[in-house]
Design brief:
The complex is a heterodimer of chains A (281) and B (307).
Chain A: E1 2-7, E2 28-32, E3 38-41, H1 46-54, E4 65-69, E5 93-98, H2 103-112, E6 130-135, E7 141-145, E8 148-157, E9 160-169, E10 172-177, H3 189-195, E11 200-204, H4 209-213, H5 223-232, E12 237-241, H6 249-263, E13 269-272, E14 278-280
Parallel strand pairs in A: 3-4, 4-5, 5-6, 10-11, 11-12, 12-13
Antiparallel strand pairs in A: 1-2, 1-14, 2-3, 7-8, 8-9, 9-10
Chain B: E1 2-7, E2 28-32, E3 39-41, H1 47-54, E4 65-69, H2 75-78, E5 93-99, H3 105-111, E6 128-134, E7 139-142, E8 145-151, E9 159-165, E10 168-173, H4 199-216, E11 221-225, H5 230-235, H6 244-254, E12 258-262, H7 270-283, E13 290-293, E14 299-301
Classes of the chains: A alpha/beta (281), B alpha/beta (307).
């Protein structure tokens, strides 16, 4: 698997020189599987740039196919959709998996973004590509997409919930766990069980612990939560992700440095998610 | 008055090195009458940093007062509002003005805060918020400032604003296409294959254009949607945006003193924006107005504030 980061920021895009190194786009990650499939996770503003890059290949010719996994439908995880060039090319096919309980509910939520009050696209039906919306159940679920097995785990995120995903291929695994809100005691047993032995664990690292204390109700992890999860689940690598919109690159450096110091004794590597960078599993 | 730009981008925010100088935030402009409360035009992502700056003032204590004029409710003009800190402080008074259409404004703005999309409902934002629906030809006062508006040619609906105070007038004209094909009132414009227009529509477009020229008449500053180059416009006349060439014609006819290129295309790099400004500065050297291109942090002092 090759994993590439297109958007690594939480809540709202944060342009400006102070975010140049890690990037200011909201959440979007692409996973190219060894067998040639494409899985896109979350549709923040990073999705526009992924789309522009995909247009150079099969998607530009209307011969592209991808699965899209949605952790949840907060703006920073769906706001790139209207700017994703491949959906305007007939012949491309997308299957979208996400929360909502039923395909109808999830599709209605995504339709809401295209409402004429807010968007000139009016409806998802104006996409030229095939755009099938499916739903992942409210409990644990496994789907087969793009030739890989993907399992999902529904976890608390503030007053709501979000899905974490685990993609398995050839004995290796990639876990995407963004917007994770643990109780004050930290990562829960069901979280650890879902992350167990992941080759790469991408984990919400929105806050420094001191900033999390005053924002506990928002449902995001601190980097300490991310480290605790990586250690307890014996992950091979931790990828820090979903940085707070007010954090500068220097602030994120501090988070990454703290994670490295914490995880070194456990032999766990830390790779910060940075826009445009790629890791191979 | 002082006019300050907090977001100058169209369509979608674009962080990254290529936009460091002009800025990647979507539309937001602050108009400050001398010693007065801020009049904010549009609430794209640029309003987040404006909000932080306002929290250094009376807004921190819940004693602030601001007005927000919304050109239209497309995402790039409203998506920053949930991140506007003064709205979370009880006591602040925020008046939001936008066009009347079939859905009540409060309902439209609430939708952005619906639980599938955002964790905090609009009703949980503690500031004293008032929505004001504007009809065609509306005129109103905000403190000492006089505000007038005109319809624009953009899918669904959009309006331009003129703010006059401190012996100066600024006009904000975004988003609009040129007045050659009818986009206003249409929910979705699928292609650039426009039918031959009936005479009534041609008259309506001419009247809309005349309304914009009248609104901009003798303005000290005209901020205009110039998202497209002429080449880009050829394939996207149905997207509802103009070229610098269209803005220049309006500026000339309205006899404005300064024209400001605005609502830059998302993929336009700083270097490309520089090149566009350079090209059009050459073209207008015999005109009676000056030309600038909006960037985040640009502040223009007008009238009594111009010194």
């Amino acid at each position: 698997m090759r994993i590439k980061f297109w958007g690594v920021r939480g809540s709202i895009p944060a342009p400006g020189p102070e975010t140049n190194r890690y990037g200011g786009n909201t959440s979007c990650v692409s996973v190219h599987t060894a067998s040639g499939g494409l899985v896109i996770i979350d549709m923040g503003t990073g999705l526009m740039h992924l789309g522009n890059s995909l247009m150079a290949g099969a998607f530009g010719k209307g011969k592209g196919r991808a699965a899209v996994l949605l952790s949840h439908t907060h703006w920073d995880h769906i706001q790139g959709l209207g700017f994703f060039a491949p959906v305007f090319i007939a012949g491309n096919q997308f299957t979208v998996w996400g929360p909502g309980g039923s395909p109808e509910v999830l599709e209605a939520i995504l339709e809401g973004q295209m409402d004429p009050n807010f968007s000139p696209l009016q409806t998802l039906k104006n996409f030229s590509a095939r755009f099938d919306v499916r739903a992942i159940g409210t409990g644990d679920a496994t789907v087969e997409a793009e030739g890989v097995a993907i399992s999902a785990w529904l976890h608390p995120h503030g007053a709501t919930t979000a899905l974490a995903f685990r993609i398995e291929e050839a004995g290796r695994s990639f876990v995407y766990a963004s917007d994770v809100g643990y109780p004050e005691s930290g990562p829960t047993d069901d979280a650890i069980a879902f992350f167990r032995g992941a080759t790469v664990l991408l984990h919400d690292s929105t806050y420094r612990p001191e900033d999390q204390t005053t924002r506990r109700n928002r449902g995001f992890s601190s980097y300490e939560d991310a480290c605790a999860a990586a250690v307890a689940a014996r992950a091979g690598k931790l990828v820090t992700f979903h940085y707070d919109q007010d954090y500068s690159d220097d602030d994120v450096d501090e988070i990454v440095g703290a994670c490295k110091a914490k995880l070194k004794p456990h032999g766990i590597d830390v790779v910060p998610a940075r826009e445009g960078e790629e890791i191979a599993i | 008055m002082k006019v300050r730009f907090w977001g100058v981008r169209g369509s979608i925010p674009v962080p990254g090195r290529a936009t460091n100088r002009y800025g990647g935030n979507t539309s937001c402009v602050e108009v400050r009458p001398k010693g007065g409360a801020p009049i904010i035009i549009d609430a794209g992502t640029g309003i987040r940093k404006l909000g932080k700056s306002l929290m250094e003032e009376a807004f921190r204590e819940g004693k602030g007062k601001a007005s927000i004029l919304i050109s239209h409710t497309h995402w790039d003009h409203v998506q920053g509002l949930p991140f506007f800190s003064p709205l979370y402080r009880a006591g602040n008074q925020i008046d939001i003005f936008a066009r009347q259409r079939d859905t009540h404004l409060a309902a439209v703005f609430s939708q952005q805060h619906d639980s599938p999309y955002f964790p905090v409902p609009l009703s949980a934002m503690h500031a004293d918020m008032h929505f004001h629906e504007l009809i065609e030809g509306a005129r109103f006062d905000i403190g000492r400032a006089k505000v007038t508006c005109a319809r624009l040619n953009h899918p669904y609906v959009a309006i331009a604003y003129r703010v006059e105070v401190d012996r100066a007038a600024m006009v904000y004209c975004s988003d609009t296409a040129p007045f050659t094909d009818m986009l206003l009132g249409r929910d979705f414009v699928p292609t650039n294959d426009f039918p031959t227009l009936p005479p009534a529509t041609i008259r309506e477009l001419a009247s809309m254009r005349a309304g914009v020229v009248a609104l901009a008449r003798d303005a000290d500053l005209l901020i205009y949607d110039t998202q497209f180059t002429p080449e880009e416009y050829e394939s996207r006349p149905h997207w509802g945006h103009s070229r610098p060439d269209d803005a220049i014609e309006i500026a000339r006819e309205a006899r404005v003193k300064q024209l400001c290129l605005f609502h830059h295309a998302p993929m336009r790099s700083d270097d490309e924006n520089d090149a566009i400004l350079k090209k059009y500065r050459k073209e207008i050297k015999n005109e009676k107005f000056t030309l600038v291109s909006a960037y985040e942090g640009l502040e223009i002092a007008l009238g009594d504030e111009a010194g």
